[in-house]
Amino acid sequence: MSNKKFNQGIGRQMPWELPATEVTPEAVFRDRRNIVKALGLGAIGASIPGHVQAGLFDLFGEKRESEAFVTSNLNYRSNPNFQLPGSLTPLDKVIRHNNFYEFGTGKQDPFENSQGLKVNPWMLKVEGEVERPLTLDYDDLLKLLPLEERHYRLRCVEAWSMVIPWIGFPLAALLAKAGVKSSATHVAFETLFDPEQMPGQRNRLMGGGIHYPYVEGLRLDEAMNELSFLSVGLYGKTLPPQNGAPVRLVVPWKYGFKSIKSIVKIRLLDKQPPTSWNQLAPHEYGFYANVNPKVDHPRWSQATERRIAEGGIFSAKRIPTQMFNGYGEQVAHLYRDLDLRKYY
Ligand SMILES: Nc1nc2c(c(=O)[nH]1)N[C@H]1C(S)=C(S)[C@@H](COP(=O)(O)O)O[C@H]1N2
Ligand SMILES: [Mo]
């Protein structure tokens, strides 16, 4: 399968650049909407009972949604300040087209390889320059803070994007519980390191050459911004493993690689922490990684993006990329004194 090639994924070849002959089987055969259309069954979700959908998956060798989406329903309220015009990316795209290199570099690898990830028990530590270090277990993640739903655009540095209904809480609310000391200037995040569960951490090729654990970071004022969000769910349910269960960061004005998954540690620091993609290719991926249509990636343009909706990446519409991914009103002031060409 073309997407199993090593030289693909973030910072490498882009899937839609493959010749049509190579993409046809995946785009058509594996796309359940096309299958459903071909069978004349109409719009999925609206008119097909669940057991018929499950039967179709069996028929075409797909895993059932119930397996892929391990989950309980969450209690949350929808935040009216974070609704978006236009439609959400369908659930089957959100959970089948992923970057999570701990489970392989192909877009379907996380879906295929992460279903056994143990997310309960879990331990998330908040430590470093804080008044009250915290240790949150799985239940704390879902219950410590009131949950809200926010629709955010997610713009990957590879120039595709989605609109996802996340459920979670503001990062600032968690940091307030811990009490940030005045000495803190930055926040560092770390993903689970568990090579037994994460094949990409055992095999350098499969893990895309990243030095694990995956680490990310924000400046403190970025972390405290109202947009910075810790997500524990999407589409009404707890996160599937491939989307970063049980808790992941979402910073929608930055390229997707900043939105680190399956977090075990949040550490307040008095200096800028190292970050995984910056370590791997510093001239291609900066610490800031703000979405910016005027600063191209050294190997491709960032002026436009493919918005993934119905039908998958190969039919995705190309739309202009917005400065700060359209969140300038909330975040532009953070960068007033920064040369965004130099601090990309
Ligand atoms: N730990 C970890 N976090 C990660 C990644 C990863 O490979 N490992 N990929 C990042 C990238 S490049 C993107 S675009 C988003 C994708 O999130 P999604 O799969 O939920 O859409 O996750 C980010 N978080
Ligand atoms: Mo990404």
Question: Could you describe the 3D structure shown?
Answer:
By secondary structure, the chain is of the alpha+beta class. The chain has one domain (77-334): Oxidoreductase, molybdopterin-binding domain (Sulfite Oxidase, Chain A, domain 2, Alpha-Beta Complex), CATH 3.90.420. 21% of the residues lie in helices and 20% in strands. It contains twelve helices and 13 strands. The protein has helices at residues 20-29, 32-38, 50-59, 65-68, 91-94, 109-113, 138-143, 171-178, 199-202, 220-224, 276-280, 328-331; strands at residues 77-78, 123-128, 134-137, 148-155, 160-170, 186-191, 215-219, 229-234, 237-238, 248-250, 263-269, 304-307, 317-320. The strands form two sheets. Strands 1, 4, 5, 8, 9, 10, 12 and 13 form an eight-stranded mixed sheet that branches. It has a five-stranded mixed sheet with strand order 3-2-11-6-7. A hairpin with a 5-residue loop joins strand 2 (123-128) and strand 3. Molybdenum atom binds next to loops.
- Give a count of the beta strands, DSSP E runs of length 2 or more: 13
Question: Secondary-structure element order, as H and E?
Answer: HHHHEHHEEHEEHEHEHEEEEHEEH
Query: Which percent range fits the helix content?
Result: 10-25%
Name the CATH homologous superfamily.
Oxidoreductase, molybdopterin-binding domain
Low-confidence spans: 1-9, 11-68
